[in-house]
Structure to design on (235 residues):
């Protein structure tokens, strides 16, 4: 009996400011914004203002939008609290009601707590001892008010198993973040989170993994060849 075969392609979503300048130039970005605002002003697109519910424990946020000319409607939902957040985005085809895209909350980036938003240099200045430990033994260090790497690994592996069951035999494109991508590759290679820095996950890198019933093959790892034609010529 032929085994179900599935290829999964992972792409890094996180981009630095420099990456954005290379991939999305300011003229292109402004043109997209202008098109969106024009469509909204001409009532060809719908944007529902953010609605919030505030509780002592946290805040719920819901945003909705639709682009009839593109045949798409969707929403962004997230719940924030001091210790973490949940995050969901769905994009739906208005003609077929097909779910075209979804952000799986269990594939979200690791919660870095007090380190959130800091560059490596800023972290080294504010948390020097933790910065050294994170660079050498990330599996034994938990960011202040953040998420243990072992917990991230557990939710990512569970989400992968659920994804395999839902899309058995299908090709799936998974867009996520650097820590998550490293853990996905390590799981495919039979390695644990203690080997986090053994594999790389560059912004916009592509990894291709072929999952069988009881094993996986990494066909491509963090390839960046697709970006060659997008790089700006040096001045």
């Amino acid at each position: 009996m032929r085994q179900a075969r599935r290829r999964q392609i992972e792409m890094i979503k996180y981009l630095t400011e420099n990456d954005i300048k290379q991939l999305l130039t300011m003229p292109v970005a402004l043109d997209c914004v202008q098109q969106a605002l024009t469509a909204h002003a001409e009532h060809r697109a719908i944007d529902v203002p953010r609605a919030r519910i505030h509780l002592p424990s946290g805040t719920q946020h819901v945003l909705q939008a639709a682009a009839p000319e593109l045949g798409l409607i969707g929403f962004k939902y997230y719940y924030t609290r001091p210790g973490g957040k949940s995050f969901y985005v769905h994009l739906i085809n208005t003609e077929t009601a097909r779910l075209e895209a979804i952000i799986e909350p269990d594939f979200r980036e690791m919660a870095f707590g007090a380190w959130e938003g800091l560059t490596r240099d800023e972290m080294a200045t504010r948390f020097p001892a933790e910065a050294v430990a994170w660079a050498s033994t990330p599996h034994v260090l938990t960011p202040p008010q953040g998420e243990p790497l072992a917990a991230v690994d557990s939710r990512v592996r569970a989400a992968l198993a659920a994804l395999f069951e839902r899309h058995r035999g299908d090709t799936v494109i998974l867009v996520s973040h650097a820590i998550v991508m490293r853990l996905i590759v390590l799981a495919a290679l039979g390695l644990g989170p203690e080997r986090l820095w053994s594999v790389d996950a560059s912004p916009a890198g592509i990894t291709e993994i072929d999952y069988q019933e009881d094993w996986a093959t990494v066909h491509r790892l963090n390839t960046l060849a697709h970006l060659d034609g997008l790089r700006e010529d040096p001045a």
